[in-house]
Amino acid sequence: MNDLPPDLPRLRTLETWLTLALGEVRTAIAAAEQREQEQQHGAQARPAPPDWLLELGLNRDAPPVQVHVGDCWNAGKRTRGIPRDAALRALADGVTACGMCRPDSELGFLDG
Known about the structure:
- 46% of the residues lie in helices and 12% in strands.
- The model has no long low-confidence stretch (mean pLDDT 91).
C-alpha cells in the first residue's frame, strides 16, 4: 500500500516538510538531552546536607526555636546548618530538640 503522491512536485514538497519536521525533532532531542545532562550535573554537584540544623525565630532578634537532624522532614524554612558542637551548645542553652527527629538522642545529649 503506497500512500505517497505519484508526481514529483508533491513528492518534493513532502520531502521538504519531512526534512523540516526531522530538524525540529532533532532540536527537541538535543534540548532534552541538555536538560537531562544539567540535571545529572546538578545532582552530582549538590552539596551534602548539613548534619544538624538550627531553626531560627521569626525575626533576627528572636532566639532559636529548635535543633534538628540535618535531613529532618519537620524542619521549618528558617533553618541554617550548624556543626555538631554548636548543636550540642544550643541544646545545653535550652533550645528545644525536635520531637520528630530527636537530635538530642542522635547527639547523645542528656539533660542535666
